Description:
This protein has five helices and 16 strands. The chain has helices at 121-144, 163-167, 186-190, 195-199, 202-219, and strands at residues 6-7, 15-25, 30-34, 36-37, 54-58, 61-74, 79-81, 94-102, 114-119, 168-174, 177-183, 223-227, 236-242, 245-250, 262-273, 276-285. Helix 1 crosses helix 5 (202-219). The relative contact order is 0.16.
Amino acid sequence: MSHSTVVTFPSGSLVESARVVGVHPAEEGAVVVLDRTPFHPVDHTWPDQPGDRGALRVGDVEVAVTEAVMAAVSDEGVVAVGADIPVKRGAEGWTWLVGHRVAAVPSALAAGAAAEATVDAERRAGLSRGHTACHLASLALDLAVADLWRKDPGSDALGNPDFEGRANQTSSIDENGSVDEYRLGKSLRKAGFDTEGFAASVAEREERINAQLAAWVASGAASRIEVDGDTIVDRRRWVCGLPEGTASILCGGTHVSSLAEFASIRVSLDLTDPQLLVMTTSVVPA
């Protein structure tokens, strides 16, 4: 198993013909590795987008894939899956793979077997909308709070002060939405952000974000994933040609092909804890 898994989800693929290269026992069932796959796996270091679900078919036998996950094999032959991987993705000395969790392992599902991998298309579409909306909401948030910086925090993908990059501590993407948490503590104030001014104007900032999102949705801008290579370990970027300029963000997830796929994107801002901003993004599909 010396080659990293070839992935086709960046192009929007949902079905692939592949060959089984490994079946690794797990606590429940097994983790199946293919030479190529359309499945997007949950990342073990930044698990914002859940792994795809779907099915593997070998001959007349079909098994459900409950989750696609990252897997890796060390040069010494140690197999690690998901959260048990001890290094960051791309670390040297490891071969990087996509694992497909299955509850049952029929005899036909063995190394060398030809398989057809099929992703749950409806769920993928929902997660792609959720992920694209998450990025758009973060860019709109950066723009909505740009006047609250007293120092330069660095720039985001549209050239605005990078609140997202400075303050985001967790991001959770679901079908047609996401939840992001931002730490508004001492370190952010020292970096030059006016947290008191933000707290006093949360409702206004929320209105600004939603107005910007409505304008972007109305633009119907094209959205795509650019890749440096065809394996799971190659870098990928989300690229969107917004009216203000082309945004490019390093991202391993899946995305819509056009903002015309949204009827609306809206956020709500919750500052119940003055040290923690929670932004909930909600999508209505077109």
